[in-house]
Amino acid sequence: MTQDIVDLGDPGFQADPHPVYARWRRTGPVRRAVLPSGLNAWVITRYEDARRALTDPRLSKRAYPMGSGEAAGGSRTAGAAPAADMAPGIGAAISKHMLAVDPPDHTRLRRLVSAAFTGRRIEALRPRIEQIATELLDDLDGRERADLIDAFAFPLPIQVICELLGVPAEDRDDFREWSNAVVAGSQAGPKLAPALEAMVKYIHDLLAERRARPGDDLLSGLIQVRDAEDRLTEDELSSMVFLLLVAGHETTVNLIGNGTYLLLRDRAEWDRLRADRGLLPGAIEEFLRYEGPVETATFRIATEDVAIGDVTIPAGDPVVVSLLSANRDSDQYPDADELRLDRPNPHHLAFGHGIHYCLGAPLARLEAQIAFTALLDRHPDLRLDVPAEDLRWRPGLLLRGLDGLPVRL
Ligand code: HEM
To answer: Of 53, 136, 185, 259, whose Cβ has the fewest other Cβ atoms within 10 Å?
Structure first.
């Protein structure tokens, strides 16, 4: 098969990838593409292929051969390019986490924290999350305008994940800057290496502080498992904290941001949800399907030749699964490009699939439910403060989220 090699770092593509993905789904099961880092990869775009790929053990998280350009730690986490100028040791301190490894390491690392993320444990956080949402909206009292991302969608999940881990949330502005750079990956340019280094220092300081003064929190629990039981290495410990901090908030920011945008670009949807709150759980699933927070799953590497339809991906090649594209596949969803708040259970892939299925899905759903309920209650007249066409999507191949969401309250 001959195809043009498409550039996934192209700003035009990233601003509006849906029509491009739709064309690719029609023309073949996989696409040859250049990642923003310059590496070539195969992109899987159809729902059935994506679902199968995410459970295929031949598509491994095993590190790329060194020198391939994508092996450095957090950059791989972020699904983007490495910072070649990173200080030594930084890569290992953030890359030895469950999302970057195969079984049996994956099984061991995931088990260490999975009990903290069950539906029941997460439901117990409801009153505290409601309180955080209320306080954030209290801060907006008396204002007519705000950027809903800055004022609400960003601080809510960061505060929740910090409390869950047992870390202070006061450094969250620094944290936002670093994690913006980390998720933009190679597209953050020269900001990436310093951001990764600053995050690693932050995590090391947190661990030192909690070692000195253990508490009854997840971080102290993980330190105990490391120091007393030797069930994970120091790099695995810092990488776990890195993963939970990054995965636990940037994504949820986008669920709240993208969902609010979808409701406000056509206020009939907002009014419909306001009139029938029973639609909310299904509406959240539809936001996840229609404009999911994660554009592409993190990279896999083919460990053997893998046939997808009539194309063979050779062993050793990187593979990218586009969740955004799979979730708009019209072979899977009738009128896939229509937002339908009452769409029957869409079984979307927004949280991934298989062994790496999102550990935080119950938490993300609960946070979203609380966030939308609070917004509908407190700001029934909420509307966009700029034309929807003026909103900008943040660059980056990993996440799909708005740069800002100016609203009238
Ligand atoms: C994994 C999406 C929120 C923690 C994943 C994956 C996706 C995803 C697609 C799999 C990636 C892959 O296979 O390459 C989302 C979305 C969220 C969200 C859309 C919000 C709407 C959270 C939250 C946490 C979290 C709140 C909390 C800590 C994780 C972890 C993994 C993961 C630890 C790795 C699981 C593993 O490798 O076994 N997430 N996530 N996520 N997510 Fe989330």
So the answer is: 136
